[in-house]
Request: fold
Amino acid sequence: MKTLWGSCTPKRASIRINTDLARKPPECLEYIVVHEMTHLLEPRHNDRFKCLMDRFLSSWRRSRQTLNQLPVCHEDWKY
Reply:
């Protein structure tokens, strides 16, 4: 996965996680795992999804913001 942090296929109950998350802060990995698991209950990013995210991980918006400021792939880091 070079452009996504994670993906979920609810019909198959399948979740994939980008291995580059291991190089990110732990709260970012937690956010992605909760995000993808929430898709098993609600496939869309609608109000119900956001409500469930609030219930399962109240800090998800902060973690999402942190993660969105980081490059997806390790090779994209600028030294």
Q: What stands out?
A: The mean pLDDT is 89. The first strand starts at residue 6 and ends at 9. The chain has one domain: 6-73. Strands lie at 6-9, 14-17.
